[in-house]
Amino acid sequence: MKIAIDGTAASGKGTLSNLLSNELKLPRLDTGLLYRKLAFIYIKSVKLISTQNTIDNSVLKTILNDFDLNNLDPETLKQDLYGNFASRIGKLDFVRNKLKIIQIEFVESMTKKRGGCILDGRDIGTKILPNADFKFYVDAPLVIRAKRRFKQLYSNDKSIKFENIVVDLEKRDFNDKSRENSPLTLSKDSILLNTEFLKPSQVLKKALYYIKKNK
Ligand code: C5P
Predict the structure, then answer these.
(1) How far apart are CA 140 and CA 136, in angstroms?
(2) The pLDDT of residue 13
(3) Which of 63, 118, 152, 202 has its CB surrounded by the most CB atoms within 10 Å?
(4) Average pLDDT for the chain
(5) Phi-psi category of 10—alpha, beta or left, where left has phi over 0 and alpha has psi -120 to 50?
(6) Is the CB of residue 86 below 6 angstroms from any atom belonging to ligand 1?
(7) Is the Cβ atom of 36 under 6 angstroms away from ligand 1?
C-alpha cells in the first residue's frame, strides 16, 4: 500500500504520517527533510545566510551529485532557517528532478521489501506517487499552524517571535503553492483533512477510517 500525504507547513501532515506509519507498519519518508538537508549543506558550504538573494546553482548541483537520504536529522534540520531556504531551492527544476529520483528509489525499494510506504511533502500525490492507494491533504488556518510551530520551537529558542513565524509560514505557503514546477495543490482525488479542531489521534482515526472503508 502506498500513501501520499501533502499539505501546508506545520499543518500536522508529518504527525499524521508518523502515526500512520506506526499503525500500518509501513516505512515513512518525510520528503521535506530532503529539501531541508540540501538547504543545510548548501548554507554550510557557501557560508552565507539564507536571506541572500542569489543562489549559486553550480554549488547546488555539486552537492546533488553526491546526495542521498541518509542522515536526515530532524533535530538539526527543523530550524526555520532551513525550512525557508528549502522552499526557495524547491523552485528549481534540477533540484526537484534529482530529489524525485531519490524518492522513487525509496518507494520502489520499500514496496519490494515492506509492501509499501508513506511519503509526506508537497507534491507527493501529484508528482511522486500519482497512483498512490490513498492521498491525503492536511491543512489548518495559518494562525493555528503558527501557534503549533511556535510551541514546538519556543522550548529550544526563547527569542523566537510569534509574528515572525506567521510571516514565515505565509511566505512559505505562497512559494509552495505558486511555483511553476510541482506546486502544492489539493488534487481532486485527495481527501482533505482539516486539523484545526482535531488532536493528532483524531486525525489518525479519520485517516484510518477512510483507508479501511476504501481498501
Ligand atoms: O515539509 P517541510 O516544511 O519540512 O518542507 C520544507 C520545504 O521543502 C517546504 O516549504 C517546501 O518548499 C519544500 N518541499 C517541497 N516538496 C516536498 C517537500 C518539501 O517543495 N515534497
Answers:
(1) 13
(2) 97
(3) 118
(4) 94
(5) left
(6) yes
(7) yes
Coil, strand or helix at 10: coil
Q: What long-range pairs does 193-199 form, CB within 8 A, spacing at least 24? A: 193/16, 193/136, 193/137, 193/138, 193/139, 194/139, 194/140, 195/11, 195/12, 195/16, 195/138, 195/139, 195/140, 195/144, 196/140, 196/141, 196/144
Single pTM value for the model: 0.95
For 73-99, the pLDDT digits (tens) are 998 998 888 988 999 999 999 999 999
pLDDT of residue 46: 86
**Pocket lining: 9 vs ligand 1, CB cutoff 6 Å:** yes
**Percentage with pLDDT > 70 across the chain:** 97
- DSSP per-residue codes, 89-155: HTT-HHHHHHHHHHHHHHHHHHHHHHS-EEEEESSIIIII-TT-SEEEEEE--HHHHHHHHHHHHHT
Retrieve residue 171's grid coordinates: 511566505
pLDDT at 53 over 80: no
Q: Residue 165 corresponds to which amino acid?
A: I
C-alpha cell at 46: 557557501
